[in-house]
Amino acid sequence: MVLPRDIDMRAGIINPSKEGRSGTLEWLEEGEEKKPLMMPAPKKGLDEGLVPIEMPPPQEDMEVPLGVVVPSPEGKVEILREGIPSPEPKAPPIPEAEELIEELEGEEDEEEEELEAVEEVTEVAEAEELEEMTVEEKAVEDPMSVLRTLMEGGRYGEALLLSDSILRANPNDVKVLNMKGILLYEKGDVSGSLKTFKHAMVIDPQDPEVLINYSAILSDRGMLDEALGCIERAIRKDPRSEEAWNHKAIILTKAGRLREALMSLDEALMLNEDSVETWTNTGIILEKMGEIGPAIECYNNILRLDPGNKVAQAGLDSCTRRQM
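RE: above sequence
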């Protein structure tokens, strides 16, 4: 039996087991020495009759360096703080050093400003140099952009020369062939234009822009059935092409199929209800059909979108006279 004691009065020793792997804690009887003795559990093969190792009691008067972590007699961890020197105060800034720092910072700001000024001058110079470039020099940098600029400016001869130059390097460029076909048509070479568009369709039979332009030329030449078949191919390829639906309406109008033409224009308006071109075509067809009121609404829509539109104003005047 182990006598029950208050936990603060207990002291014990660890007796090794027979196997030498663990030990059991047994309490000392009354009158026995209360100083704890620790005997480590022996490993296998060692003599079990080892003499217990006596643990020295804590020395209360031992000097401990400042700031060292030590265990207290109660087993708590304490940090000695008394006597720890406080950090030395920072020295006040030296006026000469502050002036030097400010001077250096000012020089850095000046260098940044000078660098920004140089960059601005360089950008301006590059822009001026780009403006002074000839058409040929710009064409080397971005030929397609230059080609579009020439076409939009009505410089068809120069644009045609540039398109031929591009095609010599890449004869199967469908976009350039499409532009060349338009240029030839604008210069009055209808035969050469049709030949160019046919060449492009051999390379890509389903290119919507080529099909639209080719069908427009066929329509102008009165080849309405072929033109209609071509434009329907373009719509199948790109049903969201507002331009294709408008071209189909024009072909149908030439064929006298006005109701079908209006249906095509409805498709175009569903794609873009603010299209001046689509409202113009719709107003013209409605006026042809004698639908004056709806035609006036179309022309008013155009003038709302484009107040200076001369076609819409002429159509509105025509419809107003017919109502008198």
